[in-house]
Amino acid sequence: MSDTVIEPTVERHDFGAEVGRLLDLVVHSLYSEREIFLRELVANAADATDRRRFESLTDPAIAPPPEAKVRIVPDKAARTLTISDDGIGMSHEDMVSNLGTIARSGSRMFGQQLKATNPEDRPSLIGQFGVGFYSAFMVADRVEVTSRRAGTDAAWTWASDGRGEFTMQASARETAGTDIVLHMKADAEEYLEPMRLETVVRKWADHVTLPVTISRDGKDEPANEGTALWRKSKAEVTEENYHDFYRHLGNFDTPWATLHWRAEGAMEYSALLFIPDMKPFDPVDNDRESHLRLHVRRMFITADAKMLPPWLRFVQGVVDTEDLPLNVSREMLQTTPVLARIRKAVTNRVLTELKSKAKDAADYEKFWDNFGPLLKEGIWENNEHQKDLAPLLRFKSSSAEGWTSLPDYVGRMKPEQEAIYTLTGDNAESLARSAQLEGFRARGIEVLLLADPIDAFWPDRMDRFEEKPIRSVTQGAADLAKLAPTEAPEGEAPDVTALVAALKTALGEDVSDVRTTDRLVESAVVLGAGTAGPDLQMQRLLRRAGRESFAPAPVLEINPRHKLLTALAARVAEGTDVADEARTLLDLARVQDGELPRDPASFARRVEQALASVLGRVG
Ligand code: ADP
Ligand code: MG
User: Fold this and answer.
1) How confident is the model over 503-542, as pLDDT tens digits?
2) C or N: which end of the chain has fewer Cβ atoms within 10 Å?
3) 67 and 204, same domain (yes or no)
4) Whose CA is nearest to atom 11 of ligand 1?
5) Which residue CA neighbors atom 15 of ligand 1 most closely?
6) Which atom belonging to ligand 1 lies closest to the Cα atom of 128?
7) Minimal CA–CA distance to 602: which of 583, 615, 589?
8) For residues 531 and 481, is the Cβ–Cβ distance under 8 A?
9) Which residue range(s) make up the domain with 84?
10) Is residue 239, in this structure, part of any structural domain at all?
11) Mean pLDDT of the 79-104 span
12) Does a structural domain hold residue 28?
């Protein structure tokens, strides 16, 4: 610069008092991660390029940008990082007012101008906030901006060390556009490494519509894809584009569903969401939160804005809104009503999609196999979406093949049947053979078999569907008494009052009750639960979790017609002690439900003795 024949005059300008304060704020506290400077500068460059393209439409003096891209050039020897664009550029006046004062953000004024313009003609503007430029001083101790306004010949260099004043000097630039030269601080040299820069650009600016290149060994290498797929209209996007982007998000399958829409009016956002076709390989699933990406005007903001409730965490993709500032704070992400409204709309849209995809039963099963338990979490988590979620649930059933739904079940209910019955356990196959179902089978009543861990919980929060109570068979003994079995057992059931009393005495605290039941046909005994309080599966979970005190002892239900019990009743009538047999019966009931006997060793001995005495008698 100093080689020029005519020594250009150097103008000195004071930053206003506000700028001084602002700089301090930006450098020391506004941004938690300082790599954001690059996002801001790339955003400004993209912004300026959009503006030039836009102004070239109406102003014949302005040519469209020759090369619509942003160049990042690190120079280790000079310890500078340069960000260049072919955008609209800045005049002397622009620079003084845009880079020297605040609250007169050029972009903001431009934004207002645009309000009256056709949406298609509106270039998308990134930095509407007005402090981004100063973030350069987080990493640089001196910043020089050389710029030439499109449609003019004059170029100027703005320079400052970010402390009180800046200088303006006549300069030269071959074409319109802007170069920002950062003289990096000693502790910010990492941003002179192309690899490091690429990581930052990929993280923050990938899918900016403008290509960004990083110079490596004198060559400009593309650092982003240069498209924001979600902002295009559906007609412009091919299936393949969607899949590429889906893979770019880190997936290997092809999406089961792709949702792409744009909301305009009260809320302005674009969304591109995917429902995977496979369970993600994430055995830990540790934070159980949605990691949908939030963008503001194409720029990536965060994947932690919880754009969907946790139970829709299998949905992947991007939500991009116009309605937030680019440097939205963490606090704001949690509290702003704008995001709350968008979250709600996005959640509803996903539910609507599931509802429509559920019409194709075979296809929906694939989804259900992968993510069904998460929808049950949704029922458990809040009441808000129960109405939408309930018909989306699928179940194995005691009488229907494959998967069935609550509406299907209700359609098959017997006229005199009052409730929807369920049986919960660890494994659907063993549930299907469980003695718990005998009495229901005998009466032709269907039971839904629940074998997901979450099944112990959600029925607590949704105790009915279409006015029909949802009830566990282990709590439904009373209902069965009202329904006649298809084949009535012969004769009156024997009176076992004395036996029941003897069993109660023998089992003491290990049962909360002993009672006769209509639930059994072939088996002698079964565990039951009180009509109030936790169901059997919940009791098991409580015990496994070491919360014995919250789990009431089970009810022992006996089949008074079973020959084992009639024989025992005879013993009791004779005055024989039946304590050992009582223990064995309770243990059998436990084993039947997949639990261990109370005392496995003594159970084994009792069964051995019983077998030996039977075989001894036979042999
Ligand atoms: P904002 O982008 O939110 O307006 P910034 O502090 O990032 O705030 O930038 C201030 C202003 O400086 C911009 O509004 C724009 O007018 C101008 N500016 C910054 N960078 C460039 C650039 N590369 N080309 C043209 N103008 C720019
Ligand atoms: Mg900006």
Assistant:
1) 999 999 999 999 998 889 999 999 998 877 888 888 888 8
2) C
3) yes
4) 98
5) 106
6) 3
7) 583
8) no
9) 10-222
10) yes
11) 88
12) yes
